[in-house]
Design goal:
By secondary structure, the protein is mostly helical. About 65% of the residues lie in helices and about 5% in strands. A three-stranded antiparallel β-sheet has the order 1-2-3. It has a two-stranded antiparallel ribbon with strand order 4-5.
Length: about 475
């Protein structure tokens, strides 16, 4: 099957950020004084758990950032190849049944029938007002009573496979640990089994089993059931929850790319040079703080919406239109959220510029930019790193709130905010359609909780005051 690669702006920035992170990891590993704090993060149980959970979200986000347009089928081989206007991703291809198996309307989790009654024509021509059978959900069952036994059997298979994969992971771990001396395999097997390591191996394998258990059960059960039910148009809610991961990660990471340069440059400049430079920078961020951020974001999004409506020829597909709005939202959030970090860096720079080693460098004739590069900035990076990690979860929640009030991502883009916004009307139904809101809440809650736990561990590892307290 031929396809046409599609490079969205957010895709390019995501993989650019990934490249920067990989380069930073290589750089840090070669310097023990930089790698020591990161090792302490992994050595703590909370750090190990949060890193593994965040890694699962990152993998989903990266797979969903590889976009393409599939070729349309043609009856004539010599005819020119045309590509679909729908932009798909590698993640869509991996979970294609979830995307394609759409029902007529609402259906509850693991249900075999629709959530609303309809008038049906029976085989004998009579009319019956009942719940119609789903087209895909539990369609493989001969009788509805077999559903519970089939679910138990599927869960059992997935659980046994999880244990098998965990055992294979353990064997690979032992083999890698004893690769230098193959005759040490039994000794390494016992050492790892008894958790004789600086790292919390029990926590690692327990978390790995939980992740394998959840992933495999969702994969097996979603082949024949709608695990989280379907929405108003019959789309699988589990698919929507997974597709929303990329949107949350883009908001949390790309906004940082916009925020960091302004916060670092202006914060250091205000604290080091002082005088009229400090006054101007303080006036700028004080003015921005006095304006409600939601109003600025709403005004910017409305301006962009007017531009897109007046220039539809600049956007070939709906995905490109939604991607530009997402990128613009990241820029606006970055422009309005740099002030807090800037104020912190300014205060810390005011203290560092009076340090003895800075005054000695200045007395020896070192220039201002040399002092900033060699002495000020390295001593501020722990604050920058802690602020970035702490702000990530807040930005993910900000997307949900903004989309809920209608000034967030494009309505055609799947996100947790749009899911919550659509669930607002579903909660007013009788009976209540609760699963869309629940799925969005669980997905977002796990990501934000893991990010907050990771932020706490990073703060303890990099903050000198927390190190002294420990």
């Amino acid at each position: 099957m031929s396809f046409l690669p599609v490079f969205l702006w957010t895709d390019i920035l995501i993989f650019l950020l990934l490249t920067i992170i990989v380069a930073a990891v290589i750089y840090i590993r070669r310097r023990p004084h930089l790698s020591a704090p990161w090792k302490s993060v992994i050595m703590r149980k909370r750090g190990m758990i949060s890193v593994m959970i965040l890694s699962c979200y990152v993998v989903i986000g990266l797979l969903d950032s590889l976009h393409y347009r599939p070729a349309m089928e043609s009856t004539e081989p010599s005819q020119q190849t045309y590509y679909s206007s729908e932009v798909l991703s590698v993640f869509d291809w991996l979970v294609l049944p979830l995307k394609q198996q759409m029902e007529k309307t609402y259906s509850a989790p693991f249900s075999d029938r629709l959530f609303v009654k309809e008038i049906q024509t029976m085989n004998d021509g009579s009319l019956k007002y009942d719940y119609p059978k789903l087209k895909y959900g539990a369609a493989h069952l001969a009788q509805a009573g077999d559903k519970k036994a089939d679910i138990y059997q599927t869960v059992l298979k997935a659980s046994l496979l999880s244990l098998l994969l965990l055992f294979l992971m353990y064997i690979c771990h032992v083999a890698v640990a004893s690769r230098a001396k193959p005759n040490q395999f039994p000794r390494q097997f016992k050492r790892i089994f008894l958790n004789q390591s600086h790292y919390p191996l029990y926590t690692f394998y327990f978390t790995a089993f939980c992740l394998l258990f959840v992933v495999l059960n969702l994969a097996f059960l979603s082949q024949n059931y709608h695990v989280f039910g379907t929405d108003k148009v019959g789309q699988d809610v589990l698919y929507q929850s997974l597709k929303s991961v990329r949107t949350g990660l883009v908001i949390g990471t790309l906004t940082t790319l916009v925020m960091l340069p302004m916060a670092i440059m202006l914060g250091i400049a205000a604290g080091y040079f002082r005088g009229w430079i400090d006054d101007v920078i303080q006036y700028i961020y004080t003015t921005l703080n006095s304006i409600p951020g939601v109003l600025l974001i709403a005004a910017a999004v409305l301006i962009l919406q007017v531009y897109m409506n007046n220039h539809p020829e600049n956007f070939k597909t709906i995905a490109e239109r939604a991607d530009i709005r997402l990128l613009f939202l990241c820029i606006i959030l970055g422009m309005t959220s740099w002030t807090g970090l800037c104020r912190i860096l300014r205060a810390e720079t005011l203290k560092l510029r009076e340090a003895e080693y800075v005054m000695a460098s200045r007395a020896l004739g070192a220039g201002s930019f040399s002092i900033l590069h060699k002495h000020i900035l390295p001593n501020l990076m722990h604050l920058v790193l802690i602020a970035v990690v702490l702000d990530f979860s807040g930005l993910v929640l900000a997307e949900a709130v903004l989309s809920y009030v209608g000034v967030g991502v494009d309505p055609s883009m799947i996100s947790w905010g749009n899911m919550i916004n659509s669930a607002r009307l579903e909660m007013a139904r009788e009976p209540v359609v609760w699963w869309s809101l629940t799925a969005a809440f669980i997905s977002m809650f796990v990501l934000v909780l893991a990010a907050n736990l990771f932020a706490d561990v990073v703060r303890d590892a990099f903050d000198p005051r927390m190190q002294e307290a420990r």
